Amino acid sequence: MSYSCAADLQGAIFQLLQADPDLASAGVPVHDALPPGAPRGTYVLLGPEDVIDRSDASGPGAEHRFTISVVSDAAGFSTAKRIAGRVSVLLQDPPLDLGPSRLVHMWFHQAQARRIDGGRGRQVELRFRARIEG
Q1: N or C end of the chain: which has fewer CB within 10 A?
Q2: Domains in the chain, start-ordered, CATH in brackets?
Q3: What is the pTM of this model?
Q4: Cα distances (angstroms) measured from residue 70 to each of 39, 62, 97
Q5: How much of the chain is in helix, strand and coil states, percent to nearest 5?
Q6: Residue 79's Cα: distance from chain center in Å?
Q7: Tell me, what's the pLDDT at 1?
Q8: DSSP strand E in the chain: where?
C-alpha cells in the first residue's frame, strides 16, 4: 500500500476547488480546516479520508475514499445543492498533479444532504473515491 500521495491528493483537490471561477464568483471559500469562530454563509470543507490498499503486480496503489462537505446557512437546500453539484462536476476525473503518483480514476460515490444547527443550516456531504498508483 502507498499512503505517500495523500497530502498531494488533498493539496491538489484544494487548489482545484479554490481556483474554480464559479465557486469564487459565488463567494464560496474552500477550507481544509474550519476557520476560527462560527463561519457564516456557504463554504466548502475538505473532510475525512479512508485509504485502502490497492497494490497489485504492477506496483503500489491505493483507493482514497474522502468526503467534501458543503455547508450553508442559506434558507432551504438549493444553495448547498447547487454548490455541491459544482464540486461534483469539478472532481470527475480532474487532471491533478500528484507528484510521483498518478490518478487512475476519480469518481463520485454518494451524497447525503441534511439539516444542521437545529435546522438553521444545511450540509451536503459528498463522498468520492480516487484510485492512485505509485
Answers
A1: N
A2: 6-133 (3.30.2000.30)
A3: 0.93
A4: 12, 26, 24
A5: 25, 40, 35
A6: 17
A7: 62
A8: 30-31, 42-53, 61-72, 102-116, 121-133
Which grid cell sits at 114?
441534511
As a residue count, the chain comes to: 134
Residue 93: band (very low, low, confident or very high) from pLDDT cuts 50, 70, 90: confident
- Phi, psi dihedrals of residue 32, rounded to the nearest 5°: -110, 5
Rounded CA gap, 71 and 107, in Å? 21
User: What does the block give as the cell for 24?
Assistant: 469564487
C-alpha distances in Å from residue 127, one per residue of 6, 99, 108: 16, 23, 6
Do the Cβ atoms of 124 and 133 come closer than 8 Å? no
